[in-house]
Write a structure and sequence with these properties.
Pfam families: Thioredoxin_8 (PF13905). The protein is of the alpha+beta class. It contains 15 helices and 13 strands. The N and C termini lie far apart (99 Å).
């Protein structure tokens, strides 16, 4: 009986150990140049990154990290330096593998080797193949116009171009569906191709559009790739290659419809990516396309928006360029100026900020540098609406402001902040003399650029 109990005990211990081993995988490494350094394994989740595991290398440069079997995706292996500039990062793929990384010389990727990792061997083989074929393609395409009238040579060039273009796709087509590197390389190639397509191969744009519109943006492989932001930013920048504003808007909106449609069924993810896309379009001054995102989300009956998202999009719809800015009742030491509309100036820059906002403090420095020039050359007045709740902090913050400042100490509940749908500081609006919205700038530097190009002196 005692023997049977002992056997059962050891069986349970062994089962638990095996279960644990199956739940976690290890990444071991030897980087001789990295001794006694902090090392992090950083994973990705949609638009954010997170530390999966961290450790410290020993005096020989050996280290060991772990990751869960639930995490399948791209990751960064980061060796922490004395400063951010001295950090060393390496892209690795994680997919239920215990593997070893040996890197003799951190300045030479040829000395980088993986043991027991089909994923990372495939990734680096694919990246090498892509870089080599793209280098040869550049030369072949340069020669093609020179041999326009030489039939045989031109046919040979066209054949070689097709061969080189098909090398990586051919390799990827032979990989198993379970191989994450195949999917990752496909997306990474699409991202890497976009700037080159814009500058040299415009004939590729229609094919790029087709590929982008077929992407499932709910795919966990994409959400954990670390490539999502580059994919979205790169694609809409590529669409600007069409030049004509109306055509650019048409192509951007068509892609947006496909992207957001692919997110149906996951409201939280849809809201997160839609807001990111909206900000990308605004930053690139693609305002009509940003408006399209806002209206799409506001009219999407399948997606229940949270209050923050509703306010975010309403800010765009009601505070769009060309609209009339809401009136603001000013609470300031200047008793003669009681409202925004009573300010007599050709331009009014309304700035929402606060003493507790570090980014606002940085922006105020820029405003101070520009204010005198703007006032004298463009008849521009700044109206600073503070979202402070403590008078002492507010008074110290605005003590050397040369412009109009207002605060009712209600924080985010300040009526102007509610009327203007303010959800972040600093937020800026450039208005004309009649309070019509001319620009929603991201900074004082952007205001200055606009005034130089469009302002009336």
């Amino acid at each position: 009986m005692m023997i049977a109990i002992r056997q059962l005990f050891f069986f349970l211990v062994l089962s638990n150990f095996i279960g644990y081993a199956q739940m976690n995988y290890t990444v071991k490494g030897n980087f001789p140049q990295v001794k006694n350094k902090q090392i992090e394994l950083i994973g990705f989740e949609v638009l954010k990154d997170t530390i999966i595991s961290k450790t410290k290398s020993d005096h020989l440069g050996n280290f060991e990290l772990s990751y869960s079997k639930k995490y399948v995706g791209g990751a960064l292996l980061k060796v922490k330096g004395e400063s951010v500039q001295e950090d060393i990062t390496l892209v690795v793929l994680l997919n239920k593998e215990n593997f070893v990384i040996n890197w003799l010389d951190l300045a030479d990727y040829k000395t980088l080797h993986f043991e027991n990792s089909l994923e990372n061997d495939t990734f680096f083989k694919g990246m090498t193949l892509y870089q080599e074929s793209e280098s040869i393609l550049a030369g072949l395409k340069y020669l093609k116009p020179l041999y326009k009238k030489q039939g045989n040579e031109l046919k040979w060039l066209e054949k070689e171009i097709k061969v080189k273009e098909s090398m990586l796709p051919s390799m990827l087509s032979k990989l198993a569906e379970t191989n994450y590197a195949g999917y990752y390389l496909k997306i990474r190639k699409l991202v890497a191709d976009m700037p080159v397509t814009a500058s040299s191969y415009s004939e590729r744009i229609p094919d790029t559009e087709k590929q982008f519109k077929t992407i499932n943006f709910k795919d966990e492989r994409l959400l954990k790739s670390g490539l999502l932001t580059q994919l979205i930013e790169g694609y809409y920048q590529l669409m600007e290659s069409y030049g004509d504003t109306e055509i650019v808007t048409e192509h951007c909106n068509s892609a947006t419809d496909a992207l957001l449609k692919s997110l149906n069924g996951n409201n939280v993810l849809k809201q997160e990516i839609a807001i990111f896309l909206f900000k990308v379009l605004e930053k690139r001054s693609l305002f009509k396309s940003a408006e399209h995102v806002a209206l799409y989300m506001l009219n999407d009956n399948s997606c229940s928006l949270d209050d923050r998202s509703i306010g975010f999009y309403e800010q765009y719809r009601k505070m769009a360029v060309g609209n009339q800015a809401p009136e603001i009742k000013l609470v300031s030491d200047n008793k003669e100026i009681k409202t925004l509309s009573s300010i007599k100036a050709d331009y009014k820059l309304v700035v929402f900020g606060s003493s507790w906002c570090n980014k606002c403090k940085e922006e105020v420095v820029e405003l101070k540098n520009q204010y005198k020039d703007w006032k004298e050359n463009y008849n521009l007045e700044i109206v600073f609406i503070a979202l402070d709740s403590e008078k002492e902090a507010y008074d110290a913050f605005i003590s050397d402001f040369a412009w109009i400042s207002s605060c009712d100490f209600k924080g985010w509940k300040t009526q102007a902040a509610v009327d203007y749908f303010i959800f972040a500081t600093p937020t800026l609006y450039l208005l004309d003399s009649n309070d019509k919205i001319l620009l929603k700038p991201f900074s004082g530097a952007q205001v200055n650029s606009w005034l130089i190009g469009n302002g009336k002196k």
